[in-house]
Amino acid sequence: MASKADLTVIFEQDKEGNIIATAPDIPNCRVIGKTMEEAQAKIKEAILKELGCDPGSNIHLESAAPIVDHGHKHDSDCGCKH
């Protein structure tokens, strides 16, 4: 029987343009991809591995928010909310 779990995955873009994907609910589950597609594939693989699931298991990523861009220097005028 298949089970369903909701996990948060955060996608950020670094200053070099790489996409960093992190699953904060799973310790050490962080990957880097050159594209969003590569980061999504890698984070799916990492989640399955960390949870001890079959590598062929289906996992669906649903976008809830835009990518977080941390590719600029933060200062008092940047407008970031963190």
β-strand percent reads 15-25%
**C-alpha geometry:** globular
Mean of the pLDDT scores? 78
Overall CATH class of the domain at 10-55 = Alpha Beta
The overall strand count is 4
CATH overall fold name of the domain at 10-55: Double Stranded RNA Binding Domain
The helix-and-strand class reads: alpha+beta
Helix content: 10-25%
Distance between the termini: 41 Å
Alpha plus pi helix count = 1
CATH architecture of the domain at 10-55: 2-Layer Sandwich
**What is the ordering of alpha helices and beta strands?**
EEEHE
Question: Biggest sheet, in brief?
Answer: 4 strands, mixed
Radius of gyration: 14 Å
Placed side by side, the strands forming the largest sheet appear as 3-2-1-4
Low-confidence stretches: 72-76, 78-82
Task: Supply the key terms.
20% helix, Double Stranded RNA Binding Domain, 17% strand, four-stranded mixed beta sheet, disordered C terminus
Provide a compact summary of the structure:
The protein is α+β, with helices and mostly antiparallel strands and 82 residues long.
